[in-house]
Amino acid sequence: MEKGGGKPASSRLCFLATLCAMFWVLIFYFHFAVISNEPAGSAAQATGVRIDRSRIRIPERDGASRVDVPLAPPARASELPPPPPNPVARPKEAEAEEEEHATEVRREEAPPKAAASYPFERALKTAENKSDPCGGRYIYVHALPPRFNEDMLRDCEKLSVWTNMCRFMNNDGLGPPLGNEEGVFSNTGWYGTNQFSVDVIFGNRMKQYECLTKDSSIAAAVFVPFYAGFDVARYLWGYNISTRDAASLDLVEWLMKMPEWSVMGGRDHFLVAGRITWDFRRLTEEESDWGSKLLFLPAAKNMSMLVVESSPWNSNDFGIPYPTYFHPAKDADVFLWQDRMRSLERPWLFSFAGAPRPGDPMSIRGQLIDQCRSSSVCKLLECDLGESKCHSPSTVMKMFQSSLFCLQPQGDSYTRRSAFDSMLAGCIPVFFHPGSAYVQYTWHLPKNYTRYSVFIPEDDIRSRNASIEERLKSIHPDVVKQMREEVINLIPKVIYADPRSKLETLKDAFDVSIEAIINKVTKLRRDIIAGQEERDFIEENSWKYSLLEDGQRIIGPHEWDPFFSKPKDKGGDSSGSSAEAAKNSWKSEQRGHS
């Protein structure tokens, strides 16, 4: 190369090296930055690399190490896909165990169902508080307007057609005190109580109840202090049905507006009427029909009504004892009376106080009177429309105290106050129809009626002329003694204590009734929660259900079916003999207590 012309040789070598380096940089950049970012298939086509799709690496769950899973080669278009591989045979026990495990997993994973709640659950829970003596026993009392109770007492002279009831309202409904000139009674606790005064006696006892509450949400039951018996008594004679029903309709309308009603639709409500149920069961709208329709009102059917005589064929009324003349203020008064009844000499085998019913061809009273007259061991106290010793409490009680057995046939209706007067005297009652006591007072009397009474079916007297004297004489003296002791022990449960005080340990008729109502409502509430509410209840057989023992639910044929098989024969409807029975009951009130 000539001196001073062209570039030096080292510069050219550096330049060529630089171009070469840049070329390879571009090649590597193109390979790694462009080709590697394309899909696998495209990259394979671009580079000519063939991918074996028969093996693909698949990651396991939870970031576990990957495993190689072989895939079946695709079938040709003319071939059917290969069948799936046969599962490995497993024992049935293993399959069942896996299914049970899967079911348990699904149950655990399923969202829990919300338990149904009921507004009365708080009331049920109070019973679980063992430190609360009133737990499960609270009673809420509706504050009714005075037109439903107190106003009636202020107009007491209008409560009966024939009787001025004002004197019977004294002493909180017990009536005037009875003297003890003949030594028949105790020195204290005896009153001339009217047999239809339970409304006010029960209401005044409720005022002294130890577990009253103003919080209805904890109440085991709700009391309605409506004087239903006094109300119907005002208008039974000479008034149209609109007047007879007015207070009942007014009451139901008032109750249904109260929040307490909505808790159970009234099924936890109860009220008291000191009259027989037929006074409240008018079926028709005929002016000549008897009574009010209180117990047939739809809302009233949900409530429980305590009456001195209930219907065997209806489920919304319950029998409670007629009031007697004895209303003790303390336990000691009861114990002294019981001891006295145990020690009495009883010269008469049996006795009967009552009048014949010549207008009733089914009555056996005439035959009872004839048998008593012809017997030397029977004491008879005949009653009539005029002045009679039957109207004297001391005379009646003296006769009962001197008798081993007291005959208690049906009155104008099934029941009689006399049955409770005789038991108070320690006299064993003799019944002739199960409707007179056995299906009536199941809260207060033993369901095993042979423990405290004798039963002679009416037909034995009416058709077979059975001898009462022979039947009673056939009972062994030891059995008679046991029965009399049972009757005497029952005395506290069939009397109403003085409302102005409270028995210390004994339970009277009020206490027994309250306990029974609370048990009834509590059982209903628990059945509702458990979905076990009675669905097959047959109302026409209500009398059978009342005879079931605790825990029993099924009824069947009964020995007393003939007595109650035809409701219309005796009180089944208000247009038949039940209305006549109710009317005759009022006539009996006119002539006295027979």
From TrEMBL:
Subcellular location, record wording: Golgi apparatus membrane
GO cellular component annotations of the record: Golgi membrane
Main location group: Golgi
One of the Pfam families matching this protein, by short name: Exostosin_GT47
Molecular-function GO term, any one: glycosyltransferase activity
Domain Exostosin GT47: 134-471
Annotated region (Disordered), positions in chain: 62-119, 558-594
Biased composition range(s): Basic and acidic residues: 102-111, 558-572
Residue stretches spanning the membrane: 12-32
UniProt-listed InterPro entries: Exostosin, Exostosin_GT47
Keyword presence, Glycosyltransferase: yes
Family stated for the protein in its record: Belongs to the glycosyltransferase 47 family.
Protein name (database record): Exostosin GT47 domain-containing protein
Organism: Miscanthus lutarioriparius
Higher taxonomy: Eukaryota, Viridiplantae, Streptophyta, Embryophyta, Tracheophyta
